[in-house]
């Protein structure tokens, strides 16, 4: 929905114009919604799947509804509309939605009434979405599309209806509006909505600051070795493989919340794979290339550099999928280079992919294969925008209102700075990934996926695995993260943390935030809810539990190395975080 469409929608629903309005009567409510129910089946919900043009329109069948559900919705609507009208006459509207909080909303009858009508209409639209008939995927797509439409149409998104923004414009004698225009022009130039004051951060200066050196690089990645913080280190080195759809420094934001620094402080000789941000020279690179020349190369390099027979390895999100695939390829070749594996918010079994499933079907995947299967780049900003629209109120419209309508500068936040630092993906890599994982779920089917000439069989990965999932994760749902327990044959430990995809992972012990859940009986039922029912909650970070687990697989302690790498083959070439991570999409 465009701003113009949303404005027209609310002018129609409220009987209002920006210049002034009369509150509609209950009869007008009923007449409007009678027409809306009649027209709902003709809505182009499929177009919502484009999210600004990143994907082709989603295939949506013509909608049908159970008549009794629509009748009930109509009756409920008239009842609630009448109650709302009566409350408005008594100036007794109570708005609990945080978008409409504040004295300006409370003291502006038209604005508060507009917000109350919006919330009623939003509930009714969602009720209609729930009443639609169809299979689970169709219903999810309808629900997602309606949620996007509702989020875009909120009266708080428009100056004509946002009482708070209007009051601020009056209080500042228009300065907030001038700053809002300046913010809009700035964001248009940089290509994305600002979520934080990006001018306050610089990679290598106040984010990604853990001391280290680049000791190896090829066209896919740089390998960073970090300086020990302890006199002795465990003999088995530790390699982290972050997602290639983001920059690695989510694991090394600032000293107090750096997962990398925490691992180093626990006495691990720590290495991180820093992905190159693909440019036109990499537009033909494939999934096989990323497995063979990045993940496998990194594993072998750490082995060779340290002289260790086996290493401990960690994969985060897509990095976990890549790392697991690489280890399966090595297993097919008769190699078992890792002593243990940690998977953080990782999908191996793609049966539960949450809201992302609404974007995936044969037509979408085929379109991507035709578009970039033989070459091309998926722009990082397109991917970032798609993820933002998974939580539109929190990650899109909240900043539209603050930045543009109120002329505010969002506060500094390292995590949101990282979130805006997007990366590209090679088209062939992305097309393979969509079909083999999200569409066909082939990684968990023994021998079905062929990578680097080898048949992937997870049953050969018989080493200890620590699997972490976040309870409120909207990218890797807790059920999707937990599903890995059903396929990894070695000894397993599953950990559930509070919060979402990133905040759940980046939760240092010093913060004393959130909780984590674990079971000590070693049972992994097929249903994650059964596992949760038998899990015990513990306040605080899960990092200490993981550190104790990893210590058991890290071997004896030896004197920490005094130099980086192992000259002459592996020499320190530049300080961490290296130049690859600084390349912009």
Report mean pLDDT, rounded to a whole number. 89
The CATH class of the largest domain turns out to be Alpha Beta
The main sheet comes to:
11 strands, mixed
> What global shape is seen?
globular
Number of domains: 2
Low-pLDDT segments? 13-26, 37-56
What do we call the CATH homologous superfamily of the largest domain? Alpha/Beta hydrolase fold, catalytic domain
Strand order of the largest sheet: 17-16-15-14-9-8-6-7-4-3-19
> What portion of residues is helical?
40-55%
Tally of strands: 19
The secondary-structure class comes to alpha/beta
CATH topology of the largest domain: Rossmann fold
User: What amount of the residues lies in strands?
Assistant: 5-15%
Alpha-carbon distance between the two ends: 27 Å
Number of helices: 19
- Which CATH architecture of the largest domain would you pick? 3-Layer(aba) Sandwich
Quaternary state reads single chain
**What gyration radius follows from the Cα positions, in whole Å?**
26 Å
């Amino acid at each position: 929905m465009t701003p113009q469409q949303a404005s027209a929608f609310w002018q129609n629903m409220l009987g209002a114009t920006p210049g002034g309005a009369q509150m509609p009567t209950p009869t007008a409510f009923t007449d409007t919604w009678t027409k809306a129910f009649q027209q709902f089946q003709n809505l182009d919900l499929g177009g919502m799947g484009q999210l600004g043009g990143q994907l082709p329109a989603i295939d949506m069948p013509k909608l049908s509804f159970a008549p009794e559900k629509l009748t009930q919705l109509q009756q409920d609507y008239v009842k609630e509309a009448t109650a709302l009208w009566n409350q408005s006459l008594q100036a007794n509207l109570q708005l609990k939605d945080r978008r409409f909080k504040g004295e300006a909303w409370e003291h502006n009858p038209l604005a508060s009434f507009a917000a109350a009508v919006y919330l009623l209409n939003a509930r009714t639209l969602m009720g209609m979405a729930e009443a639609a008939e169809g299979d689970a995927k169709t219903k999810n797509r309808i629900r997602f599309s309606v949620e996007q439409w509702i989020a875009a149409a909120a009266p708080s998104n428009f100056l004509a209806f946002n009482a708070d923004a209007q009051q601020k414009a009056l209080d500042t004698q228009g300065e907030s509006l001038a700053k809002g225009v300046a913010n809009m022009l700035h964001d248009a130039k940089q290509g994305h909505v600002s979520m934080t004051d990006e001018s306050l951060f610089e990679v290598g200066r106040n984010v990604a600051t853990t001391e280290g050196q680049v000791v190896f690089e090829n066209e896919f990645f740089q390998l960073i070795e970090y300086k020990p913080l302890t006199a002795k280190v465990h003999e088995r080195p530790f390699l982290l493989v972050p997602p290639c759809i983001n920059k690695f420094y989510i694991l090394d934001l600032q000293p107090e919340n750096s997962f990398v620094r925490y691992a180093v402080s626990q006495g691990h000789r720590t290495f991180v794979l820093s992905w190159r941000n693909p440019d036109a020279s990499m537009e033909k690179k494939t999934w096989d290339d990323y497995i063979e020349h990045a993940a496998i190369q990194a594993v072998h390099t750490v082995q060779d550099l340290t002289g260790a027979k086996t290493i401990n390895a960690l994969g985060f999100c897509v990095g976990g999928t890549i790392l697991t695939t690489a280890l399966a390829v090595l297993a097919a070749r008769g190699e078992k280079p890792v002593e243990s594996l940690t998977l953080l918010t990782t999908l191996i079994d793609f049966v539960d992919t949450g809201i992302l499933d609404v974007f995936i079907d044969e037509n979408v995947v085929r379109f991507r294969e035709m578009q970039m299967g033989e070459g091309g780049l998926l722009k990082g900003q397109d991917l970032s925008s798609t993820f933002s629209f998974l939580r539109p109120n929190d990650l899109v419209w909240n900043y539209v209102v603050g930045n543009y309508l109120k002329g505010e500068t969002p506060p500094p936040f390292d995590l949101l700075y990282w979130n805006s630092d997007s990366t590209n993906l090679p088209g062939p890599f992305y097309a393979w990934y969509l079909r083999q994982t999200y569409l066909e779920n082939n990684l968990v089917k023994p021998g079905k996926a062929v990578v680097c000439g080898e048949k992937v069989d997870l049953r050969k990965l018989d080493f200890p695995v620590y699997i972490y999932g976040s309870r409120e994760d909207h990218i890797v749902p807790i059920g999707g993260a937990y599903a890995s327990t059903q396929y990894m044959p070695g000894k397993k430990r599953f950990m559930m943390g509070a919060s979402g995809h990133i905040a759940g992972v980046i939760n240092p012990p010093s913060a004393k935030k959130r909780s984590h859940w674990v079971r000590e009986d070693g049972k992994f039922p097929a249903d994650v809810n059964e596992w949760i029912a038998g899990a015990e909650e513990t306040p605080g970070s899960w990092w200490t539990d993981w550190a104790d687990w990893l210590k058991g697989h890290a071997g004896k302690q030896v004197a920490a190395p005094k130099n980086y790498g192992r000259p002459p083959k592996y020499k320190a070439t530049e300080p961490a975080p290296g130049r690859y991570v600084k390349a912009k999409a």
